[in-house]
Design brief:
Layout lengths: L1 H28 L16 H19 L4 H26 L10 E5 L6 H4 L15 H4 L29 H13 L4 E6 L16 H10 L3 E6 L7 H15 L7 E3 L5 E7 L7 H8 L15 E5 L5 H8 L3 E3 L16 H10 L3 E3 L1 E2 L23 H12 L5 E3 L34 H20 L2
Helix pairs in contact: 2-3, 2-6, 3-7, 6-7, 8-9, 9-10, 12-13
Amino acid sequence: MARFRRRTCIILLLFILFICSIMMALKTLRPDRAGFGDPFGLGLLPELQQRTVILDNNKNSLNRVQGDAVTHVSNLHSIAVNTMKASMHPVNKLEEELSSPNYNFHIFYYSWFGNPQFDGKYIHWNHPLLPHWDPKIANNYPKGRHNPPEDIGANFYPELGSYSSKDPSVIEAHMKQMRSAATGVIVLSWYPPGMADENGEPTDDLVPVILDYAHKYNLKVTFHIEPYKDRDDRSMYHNVKYIIDKYGSHPAFYRHKTSTGRFLPMFYVYDSYVTIPEIWANLLTTSGSQTIRNTPYDALFIALLVEERHKHDIHRSGFDGMYTYFATNGFSYGSSHHNWASLKAFCDSNNLMFIPSVGPGYIDTSIRPWNNHNTRNRVNGKYYETAFSAALLVRPEIISITSFNEWHEGTQIEKAVPKRTGQVVYLDYKPHKPNVYLELTQKWSEKYRKEQEQWLM
């Protein structure tokens, strides 16, 4: 009986010691700064963390907008870095939950939007109504400009509102959305320093911030070189050199592995057909007078194909491939799905890359009110899925997506919400949720990965 009591006491003592050790271990997991009732752990919730960052940035921006706009841009990188540090832990935690990036899914991205809070005025959201080239037709349609924030130059309305592309919380939200969609490479619309489109402001200063946030979400960035003034072989060499020298060492800078095992930067060249093949050949052929080939600035250059004849010009010019960009099936030869098989065959026979561009739909009547005939209805996502299906049929090495946020042309997959104002009723994604096109992209990214494995077997 005495032995039984002694044994019971020993077991009880060991059990008490075990409970104490568990409590001590749990205490070490609780941060020193957390007092009683502190919401420890709430920072791990991504949506709450994001809202906190947005609120902090909104408070800071009210003070910043009163200062000089140039000073704001110069300080933007450090602001973004501080924001990134504050939210790095939740992102690391989310790595297991987010879809892995697909570096063969490239998505066109625009950083040209502005608002008074960050830019002192609205940029691009106040897009003008563009007149038809025929004055007789133009007279039948309204003129003027949009008046944000209620009236914007788009047929859909962003969940983030009429945002600024300079807002670090917006950049972070965009990266998170693109990563959740299982895309891998951001194709950033780019003009040389000091240049912009006719409705925008220079955006090259934003590139370092975009690269930093892309890296945070394990995304890569390449460049969509826009048709800036006097774009030719000489200026292209200079600007490619500028991009590679300034941004090429960043871990988020995209390099594509070629069939020969080389890792080269990639540049999409919008409206490449505007420049004659002879000028491009000076830059892109080994015998050209301004050749970039076999130099430290050699890269893969992808031309825009619109008409069928452009494929021969692209080949003569020395480009490495072609993309179709427009999300309007039937609008051009290149954007017509039924032509993709013959274009892929042409590229294969001439050692070129064929990169079809898919999109969720198209509508630009908010800025081109006379262009209703080119609208492509989304059909609750069916149009998008049809485009993906057509792209997979030709087994491309890369698929490009038009677009993440080209709101003016209604090709965005960014989250949109229902909105009604006194004069305007915006389109939306109902009956689906605001993230439906991100989810569809993720679905087809996974489908592409599985099918690509079979192609390579």
